[in-house]
Write a structure and sequence with these properties.
alpha+beta
Length: about 280
């Protein structure tokens, strides 16, 4: 089942503020495997299939380094089509001596790294949804060691050639200042369902029975402040809705809970209680 197209609501594109666009482009092309879709002096959009933008990078006139203990991006997550693809990029990253984290979440196998500015990146593959274990409306996820040898063996020594065309933005994981207000905003406002809770510090939400389209945590501290507007980190991300009727309904729900809605350049922008900016797209 494809959880990243209609009728589901899902993350489409993530925009980051970076300190040095040239440095970031080198990393995202040579290490991660993106292609440049569009580029100007201070901004670039990146793609895996040559058509759809998954990531945009923007260098401001005076960009501050990433601020610690703030809300914003924990990581964005690139979902690969297969375990073989994960094996190829894992071998590539090992060859480059990139520092990695990893985890088997039962629903998926993932590797983790950071870009030159400290922005978090997850690259993962999903296990078939039929293999996921549900307890009522809660999906079972954990943090176990990955079978790195098995993943590498899937690639069978095939050369890495960048991100495969079927790569999508699988999910985004955010630092928030308060889980209760975040759950109201993303649940009552944006229509997501909570599918997993990690104590009182993190929750995972989705539409259509996915293991998560968005993760939310207070690991930077309850009450963490939003970063400065010109600091490295999350600029905005987009949520895609299946049609105008659904988007209009969501806008009404957001307004009913007092969320801010703005129209900017024919785009609809909202902001969660922790200051994370979200474009509502079709």
């Amino acid at each position: 089942m494809n959880f990243h197209k209609g009728p589901h609501t899902f993350v489409g594109e993530v925009s980051l503020i970076v300190q040095d666009l040239k440095r970031s482009l080198s990393f995202y092309k040579e290490v991660i495997g993106f292609k440049v879709l569009e580029q100007s002096h201070k901004r670039a959009t990146l793609t895996a299939d040559g058509i759809h933008s998954l990531l945009s990078l923007e260098e401001l006139e005076e960009t501050l380094p990433k601020e610690p203990r703030t809300t914003g991006l924990y990581h964005f997550a690139l979902l690969l089509p297969s375990r073989e693809d994960l094996g190829k990029i894992l071998a590539h990253l090992i060859k480059l001596n990139i520092r990695l984290g990893s985890s088997d979440h039962l629903v998926s196998e993932a590797i983790y790294l950071s870009d030159p500015d400290g922005n978090g990146i997850e690259i993962y593959r999903d296990r078939p949804a039929s293999d996921w274990t549900w307890h009522g409306d809660q999906v079972e996820m954990t943090v176990d060691p990955i079978d790195a040898r098995g993943i590498l063996a899937e690639a069978e020594g095939e050369a890495w050639d960048g991100l495969p065309a079927g790569t999508v933005m699988g999910h985004i994981h955010l630092h928030v200042s308060d889980l209760k207000s975040a759950e109201e905003f993303y649940g009552k406002g944006l229509g997501f369902n909570v599918v997993s809770r990690f104590g009182n510090q993190a929750l995972f939400i989705s539409t259509g029975g996915y293991h998560h389209h968005i993760g939310l945590n207070t690991w930077n501290g309850v009450g963490a402040p939003a970063p400065a507007e010109n600091s490295v980190g999350l600029n905005w991300f987009t949520l895609h809705f299946p049609n105008e009727e659904k988007r209009s309904s969501i806008i009404h729900s957001l307004e009913s809970i007092g969320a801010t809605i703005k129209e900017l350049d024919d785009k609809i922008l909202t902001m969660d209680p922790s200051g994370n900016h979200i474009y509502l797209s079709l």
